[in-house]
């Protein structure tokens, strides 16, 4: 199973340095998220900052994990993907996801109706643009999202004829869409092995049957520290953040943690600082949704994904933590990745 990393950095320079450290540790792909930075800008920095010292052998992949699919036009997304594949010399993977309704409508002023067919059309248009940009042929697609391009040609040949497209999704219809139209699926950060086994892999069956190379990427907040209590405390902030978000209430409630969700949401409404939500999360909830503990503890927990996923995207805990603590947690994580190769 491939070990991927979602690096953290207080500055872009630190983020790139973390990606280089991940490459030296033997990580397979570094993924750029989209919340506090643009996923595409971050991926460009990672593409330019890695792959220089490996002699062209086994250079680390670069991916957006994930970029918001509806916040940009599909054509701009395709052009960004082509540019990033050029910058990375063919190492790029385009990860897309919808985000939640409020994020799209309130933050980005974009539509969110019918997200599954909208994402299906986004992938179709991106692929049509990538395939046809250098030919000068018309690029046409009609659907929830449409495009009609005539009389235009991108005067640069693509590095590769096909850039892998990954979709993120939690709901069954979105996961099934990934299996149907994508080259891979990327998990939510809180995705235990049982979720992969019981719900995700059955929903991905069309993709797994269609292509032996379909890439299932699990994901986890991985909090490593010599003191397991410190590791759990750091990881609790991640769980507390998601517990406060209404979109995840059903997932947590089904697992018996509905009271924690209600407490976290109520705490936010009452004005409690978001960085204190981890105090509401019990250890059993941390253990259920994150990988936290000593290096040997975490290695065992990571191994539980083997056979269920082709890769696992590991990220250090960061919610509600000062930069020095995130930095320490990331250093321990990268040491673990290097030790597991």
Automatic annotation (TrEMBL):
InterPro entries: F420-G6PD/mer, Luciferase-like_dom, Luciferase-like_sf. Residues 10-307 form the Luciferase-like domain. The keyword Zinc-finger does not apply. GO terms for molecular function: monooxygenase activity; oxidoreductase activity, acting on paired donors, with incorporation or reduction of molecular oxygen. Gene3D superfamilies: Luciferase-like domain. It comes from the Bacteria. This is Alkanesulfonate monooxygenase SsuD/methylene tetrahydromethanopterin reductase-like flavin-dependent oxidoreductase (Luciferase family). It comes from Actinoplanes italicus.
């Amino acid at each position: 199973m491939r070990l991927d990393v979602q690096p953290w950095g207080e500055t872009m320079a630190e983020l790139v340095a973390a990606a280089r450290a991940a490459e030296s540790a033997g990580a397979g792909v570094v993924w750029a998220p989209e919340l506090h930075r643009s996923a595409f800008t971050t991926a460009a920095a990672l593409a330019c900052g890695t792959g220089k010292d490996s002699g062209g052998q086994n250079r680390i992949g670069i991916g957006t994990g994930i970029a918001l699919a509806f916040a940009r036009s599909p054509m701009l997304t395709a052009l960004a993907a082509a540019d990033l594949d050029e910058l990375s010399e063919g190492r790029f993977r385009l990860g897309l996801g919808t985000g939640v309704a409020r994020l799209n409508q309130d933050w980005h002023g974009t539509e969110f109706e019918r997200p599954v067919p909208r994402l299906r059309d986004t992938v179709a248009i991106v692929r049509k643009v990538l395939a046809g940009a250098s030919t000068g042929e018309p690029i046409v697609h009609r659907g929830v999202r449409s495009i009609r391009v005539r009389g235009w040609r991108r005067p640069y040949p693509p590095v590769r004829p096909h850039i892998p497209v990954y979709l993120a999704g939690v709901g069954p219809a979105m996961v099934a869409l990934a299996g149907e139209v994508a080259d891979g699926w990327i998990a939510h950060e809180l995705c235990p092995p049982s979720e992969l086994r019981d719900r995700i892999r059955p929903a991905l069956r069309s993709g797994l049957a269609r292509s032996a190379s379909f890439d299932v990427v699990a994901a986890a907040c991985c909090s490593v520290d010599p003191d397991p209590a410190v590791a759990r405390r750091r990881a609790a902030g991640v769980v507390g953040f998601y517990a406060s978000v209404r979109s995840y209430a059903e997932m947590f409630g089904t697992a018996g943690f509905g009271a924690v969700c209600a407490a976290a949401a109520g705490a936010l409404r009452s004005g409690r600082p978001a960085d204190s939500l981890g105090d509401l999360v019990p250890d059993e909830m941390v253990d259920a949704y994150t990988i936290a503990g000593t290096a040997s503890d975490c290695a065992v927990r990571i191994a539980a994904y083997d056979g269920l996923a082709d890769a696992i995207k590991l990220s250090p805990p960061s919610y509600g933590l000062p930069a020095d603590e995130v930095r320490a947690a990331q250093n321990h994580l990268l040491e673990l990745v290097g030790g597991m190769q």
